[in-house]
Amino acid sequence: xxxxxxxxxxxxxxxxxxxxxxxxxxxxxxxxxxxxxxxxxxxxxxxxxxxxxxxxxxxxxxxxxxxxxxxxxxxxxxxxxxxxxxxxxxxxxxxxxxxxxxxxxxxxxxxxxxxxxxxxxxxxxxxxxxxxxxxxxxxxxxxxxxxxxxxxxxxxxxxxxxxxxxxxxxxxxxxxxxxxxxxxxxxxxxxxxxxxxxxxxxxxxxxxxxxxxxxxxxxxxxxxxxxxxxxxxxxxxxxxxxxxxxxxxxxxxxxxxxxxxxxxxxxxxxxxxxxxxxxxxxxxxxxxxxxxxxxxxxxxxxxxxxxxxxxxxxxxxxxxxxxxxxxx
Amino acid sequence: xxxxxxxxxxxxxxxxxxxxxxxxxxxxxxxxxxxxxxxxxxxxxxxxxxxxxxxxxxxxxxxxxxxxxxxxxxxxxxxxxxxxxxxxxxxxxxxxxxxxxxxxxxxxxxxxxxxxxxxxxxxxxxxxxxxxxxxxxxxxxxxxxxxxxxxxxxxxxxxxxxxxxxxxxxxxxxxxxxxxxxxxxxxxxxxxxxxxxxxxxxxxxxxxxxxxxxxxxxxxxxxxxxxxxxxxxxxxxxxxxxxxxxxxxxxxxxxxxxxxxxxxxxxxxxxxxxxxxxxxxxxxxxxxxxxxxxxxxxxxxxxxxxxxxxxxxxxxxxxxxxxxxxxxxxxxxxxxxxxxxxxxxxxxxxxxxxxxxxxxxxxxxxxxxxxxxxxxxxxxxxxxxxxxxxxxxxx
Lengths: 328, 395
Prior knowledge:
The complex is a heterodimer. By secondary structure, chain A is of the alpha+beta class. Chain A has a domain at about 185-325: Butyryl-CoA Dehydrogenase, subunit A, domain 3. Helices cover about 55% and strands about 10% of the residues of chain A. In chain A, the strands form three sheets. A four-stranded mixed β-sheet of chain A has the order 1-3-4-7. A three-stranded antiparallel β-sheet of chain A has the order 2-6-5, with no helix packed on it. A two-stranded antiparallel ribbon of chain A has the order 8-9. In chain A, helix 4 crosses helix 7 (about 180-215), helix 4 (about 70-85) packs antiparallel against helix 8 and helix 9 runs antiparallel to helix 10. The longest helix of chain A is centred in the middle third of the chain and has 36 residues, at about 180-215. The two termini of chain A are about 25 Å apart. The relative contact order of chain A is 0.11. Chain B is an alpha+beta fold. Chain B folds into three domains: about 5-120, Acyl-CoA dehydrogenase/oxidase, N-terminal domain (Butyryl-Coa Dehydrogenase, subunit A, domain 1, Orthogonal Bundle); about 125-235, Beta Barrel (Butyryl-CoA Dehydrogenase, subunit A, domain 2), CATH 2.40.110.10; about 250-390, Butyryl-CoA Dehydrogenase, subunit A, domain 3, CATH 1.20.140.10. In chain B, about 45% of the residues lie in helices and about 15% in strands. Chain B has helices at about 5-25, 35-55, 70-85, 95-105, 110-120, 235-245, 250-270, 285-315, 320-340, 355-365, 375-390; strands spanning about 125-130, 145-150, 150-160, 170-175, 185-195, 200-205, 210-225, 230, 275, 275-280. In chain B, the strands form three sheets. Chain B has a four-stranded mixed β-sheet. In chain B, strands 2-3-7-6 form a four-stranded antiparallel β-sheet, with no helix packed on it. Chain B has a two-stranded antiparallel sheet with strand order 9-10. In chain B, strand 2 and strand 3 (about 150-160) form a beta hairpin. Chain B is globular. Chains A and B meet through helix 7, strand 9, helix 8, helix 9 and helix 11 of A and helix 7, helix 8, helix 9 and helix 11 of B.
């Protein structure tokens, strides 16, 4: 057993971090938000750069033109995406890259922006609809492909996460079945772990933002991070992040090598702990920032809002906790 | 990242399992909680069995008489012994996990020869004399004095929260040898035989109504200078070196035990009823159990993470406080849930109506100490905030 990053995994992580911070630094993130929004909030040029870096083809076999890595490596990449708040249906397009034929190839190459929605719940809110080339619907009998142009709905004027526009839909076109129930089940698991990884990145970044502010901001003649009441909030954020990290990485490794554990329990745990860390760290980071934490200008709310979006994907706490209880 | 055990690790596990199958039935009946001589005899009998089978001092260095096992092998050992229902380390705790490693790291050859074999064989039981009534979280402010008099130190003062004091042979002790030096610089580490004249032991009754530890008074107790481990006034460093030997395995048994407990609580929930309905029908309760399942699954993953880190680097990471903080608070939540699940049966610290209220309520009471013992949660948060996040120190 060696449950630590390998040297290759370390290199991958630092490479992806460099890419993310270089290509989607704070200035570009705020520009997309405040001055130059694009339809569906998916920047096509950036999307192709993500594809070139392997964001979507990471797990596609090498002889099929992919990178040939596992869920563990994908989790490291998506954690970095979470840290910089990369917008767009990243996990959906990544999953779609494994589809056979043209749809998979286009997703892998960054030529298609692919959305995903779980068809068995109501209300139906589709993310990034205006940017989608393809919409996939997860159902119990498999995955259906729907033409996004045929979807009729009402675009929500004020999405909670300004980077995640949503459209409310009454009914989805039936579409065509492109993968069976077994694939759908596997997608749910990988999707949950990679979304947990995005949450992990968000949780870690929020811990850094709060800690940095606590070291700078002075009141009563000292930095506020010296007060236990503030210090302990930051400590709790770190603890949540590290617990989520262990859970997300363990689930990713277990999907790559199912003999090392119970994939079902590992995946549910990764999503529950990731959601918990990101959303609660969002609340605590807001608190540490005091009045500034309530402003649009400070990034904390953007991370919290994204965490709320991810918390509804691939099972919320309600379903996942109940599913875990059923394993006892 | 690899969660697969190596062939050698799997072989170690298989051999251990086979031995546990044979050894567990040889154990005597478990003694009553208040029967301290009985508890000592039971715990040391287990240590003797481990010694004879070659499992004693697994994590100790080979030079000290141990096995020099890797942190992963230690994790496997603790996991398998817990799953097999083997006794906990009990009365052997201080000797095996603290005094022994300290003597190995900082003692003389003579001290190693004299004290280490008795710990490994289960002959000698050690207790710890660190905390004092006036020195808890602020341990370095301890005031028990040791004054040099010829070849002896003369010790006066009192220690508190000393487990197994009544049945211990030796006490590992921190004393103040230089009251004028800064508080961390005037402390010395001594080995004190518990039969030395001048030692008085007063059991402390806990909230459970039993005595889990004692207060120990020292009245002109003469301790040979030869019993000093490390240099005079260097005791704080000696202690810290040993504490840092923790390799991520401290809570392995307890995490395994909590995972089993959650399954037992699920079974209990299906048995008890509220207004004619099974408690299990309550979605809120199932979600709570599900969340705790995730917590312990994650804590188990974090254990493997920390153990692997220690195995790679040879030194422990900073993860100990992170783990202790979350684990102790989460374990407390499990017993809080057990308490509520018992309903009116929680009025009994004995089994009633065929329900396990005796052990659950006893442990529920005990759980109040988890976030206090071995560094309160508040101190752990200071450590995480200051040593990991780099926030300003308290003082």
